[in-house]
Amino acid sequence: MAIVAQSSKYGRVSRATLAWVVGLLFFFPIFWMVLTSFKTDADAVKPEYLLFFQPTLENYLNMTENYDYWRFARNSVITAVFATIFALAVGIPCAYAMAFNPSRATKDVLMWMLSTKMLPAAAVLYPMTFLTKSMGLFDTHFLIIVVLMLINLPIVIWMLFTYFKEIPKEIIEAGQMDGVNTWGEIREILIPLAWGGIASTALLCFIFCWNEAYWTVRLTTTEAATLSKLIEGNRAPEGLFFGRLSAVSTAAVGPIVVLGWFCQKQLVQGLTFGAVK
Hints:
Elements: H1 2-37, H2 58-66, H3 69-100, H4 106-115, H5 125-134, H6 141-165, H7 169-177, H8 182-193, H9 195-211, H10 214-218, H11 227-232, E1 235-236, E2 239-240, H12 242-262, H13 264-271
Antiparallel strand pairs: 1-2
Helix pairs in contact: 1-12, 2-12, 3-6, 3-9, 6-9, 7-8, 9-13
């Protein structure tokens, strides 16, 4: 018994140590980015100033005064929020139909939607740029919102489909017997029962939209440019401005990290809603 207890204690310590090591490895790039944001561009590339340096707010002041950070942040919020809302508006009815009124083609449709995520974005960059410019949509909020919605729609439908499948079909049938129409089933029965899953799906979709860089950089110039465009702009032929780049990146990552921190309980509950118990 003593050997078993000692082995169990050793296993707990080993797992805790491994968890801390993995956590620190994931956290270190963020720590280094924040640390570098308080260095000047000159100090950021000097080995003698890796850890010990004179902190400065120059990069943050330069970001807000000369680079109009708040305009880029506002564009990021607008595009991420509306793309998430539209993705849910389309995804909830689609997932509802597939979960409670499936057909023989339902699985094939779900796999087809997921396969669209395997398409290389660079393969459609030229036609997308040509079409949007010819239609007068290039560098508009509408274009970025639609693109972000379509990019994340397969993931939204898949997640919602998984959550909806966990709801007993008898509840929906009982509502139908009481004379509730399709919209009433979604609004009064489905959404309240699957609210945790819908909330976690919305949060993940918002994070994906906020972090999207490829399309937001290539389909915008100034009017609809997001924080990704601001980050991309902190480079020059002579190299990267690491101090300013770190400050902009910290300001871009900060809001989404804070949001995830405060919503982590709801996120975990939603992600485990459709799990095998």
